Every structure is written in structure tokens, then in C-alpha cells.
From TrEMBL:
Annotated region described as Disordered, given as residue ranges: 1-96, 434-454
Compositional bias ranges of the Polar residues kind: 29-49, 442-453
Protein name listed in UniProt: Rho GTPase activating protein 28
Biological role: GTPase activator for the Rho-type GTPases by converting them to an inactive GDP-bound state.
Biased composition (Basic and acidic residues): 1-10
């Protein structure tokens, strides 16, 4: 392949990217119709459309309004501080998200109580705050997370086994969270695309990480993605419109082919790549993944939630659970990506890439569906995805902290598992001994002893009998005879009955022990054994 002449990024002609995925979301001008009373002229109002069936959206009502209002660009930084000459807004330092004294402009966020319980209780009391979606970054609420007794835990600090439990619990909690609003969380079927087995573009994240871990066992983010970050950070953080512009088409095509062929062999020469081409290929990397980085199948439920106009706190809680339910590769990559984008946003005064601009440009690359949708559905999905990315950028310092109520549930699950492992060997030994005793006394089963050890092990448990374990109850294990009418509630009732019997027996033993102590004090001449017999009524000599 003939190498193209090298050019510096400074000599590059700024070329707007013409692809649909990389253009900023279109703005819809105001119509002549009247707006609803609760709509703000500076807010983005989502239409009152609902999901009518799986994988589709209902057509909005004729009296509903679906506008993305044109809001003038204000010279405001991502942290809320204005340009010189503008009114000063209250702002927080980057390290103020974990303090004990809450400033007046911030709102407390608790990780101790289940999110679904919080919204359910708020809805019952009709105390759920509402807010409007606005384009300005500084209008987003600042949250303060109180430190708990055990501190806050990063998702990456937990073991793989614990994070697997966290993902399952988060999905259950997310379902209950949406159910509190009457929203059914459906995983809409998306068209599956088989990824490539080698190369860089179009390869699943898990496959890329498996290949990269042969070089670095501890890597959590694909190495090629880290290289794209480095190239942009070297000289592109102050480049105006860095993610809105496309590089030289011929060079981008050449670099893509060379990366696919040479990157894994460490033969690609990164010094010849410009930061513009690196930014273009970074977007292409995510756009060409077999499945989007974030689960687009949950977007309909989030859209339904946004139509109810909940407070930003409620939106964050739903997003927090969605992030905790992500696979490890997606979550770690998303965290690295949001950290990188915040570096870009920190240079907004020079590169003109605000938090909203980054969100609208990157939304089609991070949330995409290969299914066909109408223009209205595409716009609604793009607006919601852009708002989700903006929330992730704003709250990325606390978004990756695991909620304490999920950690508490995982801890209880681990304790129950450890208790079961301790008790299981002794229970198995007791059952085996009882079975062997029964076989030796029964002439019908005496022939079993002459069989092989494997055959004897198969006969330890009678046919139709299962052993149910309940480590949190006093009666931790019980053999249950199954039949066609056996139900779960019958087994639970049997456990409850056995627990009551066990508690009565313990109460009797406690009473006998006290009687024995009293008799021992009053009749010192009698032996303890005789006193116990008298207490339970077996000695009639007194």
C-alpha cells in the first residue's frame, strides 16, 4: 500500500463529518401552536408517547407537543462557572462530592436505602420532585453522597464473583424501580450481529480484552482505545470542534486497515497519526461494535420515565442501576471514556466542546439500534441517549460507586453460602449413616450393601425426596417428599412448623435447666441427676 504524504493537524482543512451518526442532533424550531402550561420556553419537552408493544413506540397524541427548543449557546463551562463578564454561579470543587457538611445549593444522595423503596415511598406521599430538562450544563443538581460506616466502594474493587451478584441484584432493583412508576421494563429484542474474531474494528470488547491480556494481564480497557485517548490528549484537547470534524478520508481508511493488520503485532506506527484521525476512529470504534456500549433496549423505559418529568435525582438513580447492571468490560470501558471526555470538556473555552455538545455528538455512537425506526422515534431515542450521556459526564465521580444497599445484600448472600458450606458436610454424613443403618436392618435392601460404592451413593437418597436448605432459619435443612401436589408454600409452611416446634423444645429445655438449678440450691444433698429426674416428673419418690 502506498503511504500517503504526511500532514500535520494544523495544516488540515476542517472537514465536517457528513455521516448521520456523527452530526449534532438537529434542532426543531418553534411551531405556531400554543405550548402547554407546564412547558418552559427554555426546556426540552418530550412528547407524551408511550411504548405500545415490544420493540416499537406509540405515535404521539395529536394534542401532545414534541419540541427540542432552540436555546442560545451560553459561554458556560462544564463546571458551571461562566466566562469573564458573566454572573458568577455557585460551583463546587471536584473533591467536594464526599463531605459531611452539605452546601445550600447541593442535595444529599443516600446509597443506604434501596432506590425502589425510596421512590415508592415518595410516590405514596406525593413528595416526588419534578424538573425540566434544560440544555445548560450548570442547571443539573449537585449531589453530595454521605460517607457510610464502611465507606464507599468502587465497582472495580469488588471480586468478579461479587460483581456478578451485583449485576443480578441491580437488574432486579431496576425492574422494581420502574415498576413503582407503572413502567414495565422490557428487554426489547435487538438484531444480533456477529462480531469479528480478529482485528480491531467490529470486534467485541470481550474478545479484544482477551487478546490484550496476553500482553498485560491486568488491563480492563482495550489497549487500542487507550492509544486513541493518548493521541487526542497529546495535541487535540484544545483543537476546536475536535469531535465534530472528520479527518482526511483517505488517511482514516489507511489507518483503519493498518490497525486491523498490525496493532496486535505491535507494528503500527502511532507517531504518524494526527489527533483528528484518532478522534474519528474513536467514534468509529464504538459505532462498529457488534452491540452498543450501553444497552439500547432499556431506552424505551427511560423515555417513559422522562415523560413523567421526574427530578434529576430520580433520573440518576435509574442510570446508576443501569450502570451497575452492565457487563464488566462495558462498565470499565464506559468509565474510562467518561473520564477522557471530561478532560476534553475542561478545555471547552478553546475547543468549544461543552458537555451537551459531547453528548449529542457521541450519543449515536454509544446508543445505537440496528432495527428500523421512524424519524420521530430516532429523534426521541437520540435526545434521551444524549441526556443519559450528559448525566454520566456530570456525575461520573459517583456513578461508579456501588450502592451500599446492594453491597449489604451481597454480604448476606456470602454469609449464607459460607454457613451452608460448613453445615453441608456434616448433614451429608448424617444422612449417609442413617441410610446405611436403614439398609442393614431391612432385608429388602440388604443386597444394596453388596453393590459398588457408586451404587450405594445413588441409593443414599430415596426416590422423590429432596433436601431443602434454609440457612437463615433455625431449622436449616429438611428432607421433603415430593408429589404432584407439592408447592413451594407447602414446603415453607413445613419449615415454619418445624421452627415453631424447635422453639418450643428450646423453651422447655430452658425451663428444665432453671428448675434443675433451683432444686440444686434447695436440696444440696441430692445428686444433679436425681434433681433433673424430679424436675421432669420421672422420679416419684419425692
Amino acid at each position: 500500500m502506498n503511504e500517503l504524504p504526511r500532514e500535520t493537524c494544523d495544516n488540515h482543512t476542517n472537514q465536517l463529518d457528513g455521516t448521520q451518526e456523527e452530526r449534532e442532533l438537529p434542532r426543531v424550531t418553534k411551531t405556531s401552536g400554543s405550548m402547554p402550561d407546564d412547558a418552559s420556553p427554555n426546556s426540552t419537552t418530550l412528547s407524551d408517547a408511550s411504548q405500545d408493544k415490544e420493540g416499537s413506540f406509540a405515535v404521539p397524541r395529536s394534542d401532545s407537543v414534541a419540541l427540542l427548543e432552540t436555546i442560545p449557546d451560553l459561554p458556560v463551562h462544564s463546571n458551571g462557572s461562566p466566562e469573564p463578564g458573566q454572573p458568577v454561579q455557585n460551583s463546587m470543587n471536584d473533591d467536594d462530592y464526599l463531605v459531611k457538611n452539605i452546601p445550600p445549593e447541593a442535595e444529599e444522595l443516600s446509597f443506604e436505602v434501596s432506590y425502589s423503596e425510596m421512590v415508592t415511598e415518595a410516590l405514596k406521599r406525593n413528595k416526588l420532585k419534578k424538573s425540566e430538562i434544560k440544555k445548560e450544563d450548570y442547571v443539573l443538581t449537585k449531589f453530595i453522597v454521605q460517607k457510610t460506616r464502611f465507606g464507599l466502594t468502587e465497582a472495580g474493587d469488588l471480586s468478579a464473583e461479587d460483581m456478578k451478584k451485583i449485576r443480578h441484584l441491580s437488574l432486579i432493583e431496576l425492574t422494581a424501580f420502574f415498576d413503582a412508576f407503572g413502567i414495565q421494563l422490557k428487554r426489547n429484542k435487538t438484531e444480533k450481529v456477529k462480531g469479528r474474531d480478529n482485528g480491531i474494528f467490529g470486534v467485541p470488547l470481550a474478545v479484544l480484552l482477551d487478546s490484550d491480556r496476553k500482553k498485560d494481564p491486568g488491563v480492563k480497557v482495550p489497549l487500542v482505545l487507550q492509544k486513541f485517548f493518548e493521541k487526542v490528549e497529546e495535541s487535540g484537547l484544545e483543537s476546536e470542534g475536535i469531535f465534530r470534524l472528520s479527518g482526511c478520508t483517505a488517511k482514516v481508511k489507511q489507518y483503519r486497515e493498518e490497525l486491523d493488520a498490525k496493532f496486535n503485532a505491535d507494528k503500527f506506527k502511532w507517531d504518524k497519526m494526527c489527533h483528528r484521525e484518532a478522534a474519528v476512529m474513536l467514534k468509529a470504534f464504538f459505532r462498529e461494535l457488534p452491540t452498543s456500549l450501553f444497552p439500547v433496549e432499556y431506552i424505551p423505559a427511560f423515555i417513559s420515565l422522562m415523560e413523567r418529568g421526574p427530578h434529576v435525582k430520580v433520573q440518576f438513580q435509574a442510570l446508576h442501576l443501569m450502570v451497575m447492571a452492565l457487563p464488566d468490560a462495558n462498565r470499565d470501558t464506559a468509565q474510562a471514556l467518561m473520564t477522557f471526555f471530561n478532560k476534553v470538556i475542561a478545555n471547552e473555552s478553546k475547543n468549544r466542546m461543552s458537555m451537551w455538545n459531547i453528548s449529542t455528538v457521541m450519543a449515536p455512537n454509544l446508543f445505537f439500534s440496528r432495527s428500523k425506526h421512524s424519524d420521530y422515534e430516532e429523534l426521541l431515542l437520540a435526545n434521551t441517549a444524549a441526556h443519559i450521556i450528559r448525566l454520566m459526564l456530570k456525575y461520573q465521580k459517583i456513578l461508579w460507586k456501588v450502592p451500599s444497599f446492594l453491597i449489604t445484600q451481597v454480604r448476606r448472600m456470602n454469609e449464607a453460602t459460607m454457613l451452608l458450606k460448613k453445615q453441608l458436610p456434616s448433614v451429608r454424613k448424617l444422612l449417609r449413616r442413617k441410610t446405611l443403618e436403614r439398609e442393614t436392618t431391612s432385608p429388602k435392601t440388604s443386597k444394596v450393601l453388596q453393590k459398588s460404592p457408586s451404587a450405594r451413593r445413588m441409593s443414599d437418597v430415596p426416590e422423590g425426596v429432596i433436601r431443602v436448605h434454609a440457612p437463615l432459619l433455625s431449622k436449616v435443612s429438611m428432607a421433603i417428599q415430593l408429589n404432584n401436589q407439592t408447592k413451594a408454600k407447602d414446603i415453607l409452611a413445613k419449615f415454619q412448623y418445624e421452627n415453631r416446634v424447635l422453639h418450643r423444645q428450646l423453651a422447655v429445655l430452658y425451663f428444665l435447666n432453671r428448675k434443675w438449678v433451683e432444686k440444686e440450691k434447695t436440696e444440696a444433698n441430692r445428686s444433679p441427676k436425681h434433681v433433673l429426674l424430679v424436675a421432669i416428673g420421672l422420679d416419684t419418690s419425692m
